[in-house]
C-alpha cells in the first residue's frame, strides 16, 4: 500500500471509528439517565424503557451498518476495486463522458446492493419490532425502483453536465461546473414539490374546517402568504408524525403528515405550523441553501486540484488519470471536510430551530401548546430524551427536545 493510499484509508477509518465511538458513548449515557424532569408524569416507566430499548436496538443496527460499510469500502480500495470497474467501463470503448457515466453506474449499483439488506432490515425488522413500520413490501420496493430511476435520470443528467464542463471548460471549468450544479439543484428544489414528491406520497390541500380556519387566521395575523397547506399520507410508510416546509417561490408549501393531525389538538397544530412559518420568516431556508452552495464550491475547487494529480488516481488503483478517477479521489478526500461541515451545519440548524420555536411562541402566544406538541412527538417517536452532548454536536439537526422545552419555558417567564 503506498503512503498516499494509506493516508486516505486511515483518515476514513478514523472518521468511522470516531462516529462509532460517539454512538456507543451516546447509548451508555442515555441508558444511565432517568426521565427528565420536564417529562415527569408524561412518560411512564414502561414507555421510557421502551425508548431506551429502541435506542439500544437502533444503535446496534447503525454500528453493524457502519462496520460492514467501512470494511467493504476499505477492502474495495485495497483490492483495487475502483480501477477494476474503470477498466470494465473503458473496455466498451466509448468517449470520456459515457465511460465515466458507466463507471458511476457500476459503482452505484454495487453500493445499492450493499445497502439493500440494511434498508430492508431497518424497515421490516427494526421499525417493525417497535411498531413504527406501516410500509408494505410493494411500497418498499416501489420506492426503491422509483429512487433508482430518478437517481439514474437526474444523477446522469447532472453528472453528464458537470463532466462536460470539466472536459471542455478550460482553466475555470470548476467554476462553470459549480454554477451549473447550483442552477440544477435550485431548479430541482423549486420543482420537487410538484414533480418529485408526488411520486412517493399523496398530497391533498388541507380540507376546510376548524384546523384550516385556525391556520388561515394565524397566517393573516402574521402576514404570511399561504401558498398551500397540504396533508401528506405519511401513514403509508410509518406511524411517525412530522411537518415540514418545502420548496420556494410559487410552489413552496407547508406539509402536515396525516399522522400529526391525528395525534394533536388544533392549537398544538397551529403552534407547529407557526414554527414552520418561523423558518420562513427568519430566512432559514435561504441561509441553509447558501451554506450548501458554498460547501459545494469547496468541493468543486478540490476537484479542480485533483484533476491535475496523476499520483492520486494511481494510488486509488485507476489505470489512468481521467474524470472518474478525479471524482472518486475527491469524494475520498472530502470525507474529513464533510465531518467538519456536519459539525457546522448542524450547529447552525439547531440555532435555527430555537429561533423558529421562539417565533412560534411569540406569534401565537402559545408556548405551552408548542411545548406539549414537542413532548408528545418525542414520546410517540421514542426519541432519546437524554442524548450525549457529543452526539448532539455531531448529528443533531434539531436540539434535544428537553432543551427546546426549557427554552420555551424561559420565554414564557421572560
Ligand atoms: Zn424546525
Keywords summarizing the entry:
4% strand, binds zinc ion, 414 residues, 16 helices, globular, four-stranded mixed β-sheet, mainly alpha
The helix content, as a percent range, equals over 70%
What would the average pLDDT be, to the nearest integer? 92
How big is the Rg? Answer: 23 Å
| Uncertain runs | none
Order of helices and strands: HHHHHHHEHEEEHHHHHHHH
User: Judging from the principal axes of the Cα atoms, what is the shape?
Assistant: globular
Give a list of the ligands.
zinc ion
Which structural class best describes the helix and strand composition? mainly alpha
- Count of strand segments: 4
Major β-sheet, in short? 4 strands, mixed
Strand content: under 5%
Number of discrete helical segments? 16
Question: What's the arrangement of strands in the largest beta sheet?
Answer: 1-2-4-3
Distance between the termini: 62 Å
Structure description:
The structure is a single chain. Strand 3 (243-246) and strand 4 (253-257) form a beta hairpin. This protein has helices at 3-32, 45-78, 81-91, 96-129, 137-168, 173-195, 197-200, 210-221, 258-263, 266-281, 284-306, 310-315, 323-364, 367-380, 389-395, 401-413; strands spanning 203-205, 229-232, 243-246, 253-257. It contains 16 helices and four strands. It is 74% helix and 4% strand. The chain is mainly alpha-helical and 414 residues long. Helix 6 packs antiparallel against helix 11 and helix 13 runs parallel beside helix 16 (401-413). Strands 1-2-4-3 form a four-stranded mixed beta sheet. The longest helix has 42 residues, at 323-364. The site of zinc ion (ZN) has 4 residues, from helix 10 and helix 13.
Amino acid at each position: 500500500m503506498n503512503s498516499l493510499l494509506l493516508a486516505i484509508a486511515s483518515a476514513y477509518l478514523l472518521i468511522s471509528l470516531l462516529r462509532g465511538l460517539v454512538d456507543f458513548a451516546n447509548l451508555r449515557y442515555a441508558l444511565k439517565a432517568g426521565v427528565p424532569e420536564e417529562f415527569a408524569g408524561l412518560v411512564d416507566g414502561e414507555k421510557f424503557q421502551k425508548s431506551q430499548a429502541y435506542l439500544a436496538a437502533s444503535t446496534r443496527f447503525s454500528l453493524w451498518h457502519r462496520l460492514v460499510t467501512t470494511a467493504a469500502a476499505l477492502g474495495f480500495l485495497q483490492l483495487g476495486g475502483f480501477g477494476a470497474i474503470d477498466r470494465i467501463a473503458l473496455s466498451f470503448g466509448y468517449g470520456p463522458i459515457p465511460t465515466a457515466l458507466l463507471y458511476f453506474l457500476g459503482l452505484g449499483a454495487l453500493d445499492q446492493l450493499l445497502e439493500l439488506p440494511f434498508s430492508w432490515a431497518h424497515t421490516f425488522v427494526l421499525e417493525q419490532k417497535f411498531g413504527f413500520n406501516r410500509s408494505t413490501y410493494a411500497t418498499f420496493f416501489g420506492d426503491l425502483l422509483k429512487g433508482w430511476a430518478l437517481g439514474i435520470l437526474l444523477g446522469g443528467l447532472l453528472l453528464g453536465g458537470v463532466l462536460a464542463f470539466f472536459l471542455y471548460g478550460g482553466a475555470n471549468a470548476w467554476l462553470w461546473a459549480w454554477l451549473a450544479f447550483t442552477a440544477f439543484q435550485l431548479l430541482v428544489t423549486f420543482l420537487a414539490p410538484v414533480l418529485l414528491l408526488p411520486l412517493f406520497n399523496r398530497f391533498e390541500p388541507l380540507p376546510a374546517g376548524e384546523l384550516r380556519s385556525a391556520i388561515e387566521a394565524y397566517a393573516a395575523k402574521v402576514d404570511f402568504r399561504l401558498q398551500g397547506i397540504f396533508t401528506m399520507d405519511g401513514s403509508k410508510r410509518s406511524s411517525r408524525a412530522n411537518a415540514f416546509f418545502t420548496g420556494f417561490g410559487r410552489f413552496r408549501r407547508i406539509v402536515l403528515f396525516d399522522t400529526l393531525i391525528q395525534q394533536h389538538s388544533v392549537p398544538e397544530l397551529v403552534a407547529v405550523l407557526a414554527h414552520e412559518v418561523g423558518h420562513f420568516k427568519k430566512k432559514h431556508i435561504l441561509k441553509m441553501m447558501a451554506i450548501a452552495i458554498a460547501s459545494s464550491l469547496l468541493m468543486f475547487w478540490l476537484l479542480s486540484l485533483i484533476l491535475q494529480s496523476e499520483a492520486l488516481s494511481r494510488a486509488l488503483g485507476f489505470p489512468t488519470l481521467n474524470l472518474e478517477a478525479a471524482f472518486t479521489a475527491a469524494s475520498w478526500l472530502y470525507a474529513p471536510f464533510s465531518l467538519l461541515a456536519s459539525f457546522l451545519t448542524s450547529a447552525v440548524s439547531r440555532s435555527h430551530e430555537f429561533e423558529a420555536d421562539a417565533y412560534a411562541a411569540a406569534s401565537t402566544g402559545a408556548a405551552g401548546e408548542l411545548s406539549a406538541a414537542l413532548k408528545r412527538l418525542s414520546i410517540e417517536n421514542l426519541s432519546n430524551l437524554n442524548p450525549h452532548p457529543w452526539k448532539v454536536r455531531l448529528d443533531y439537526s434539531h436540539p434535544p427536545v428537553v432543551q427546546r422545552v426549557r427554552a420555551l419555558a424561559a420565554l414564557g417567564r421572560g
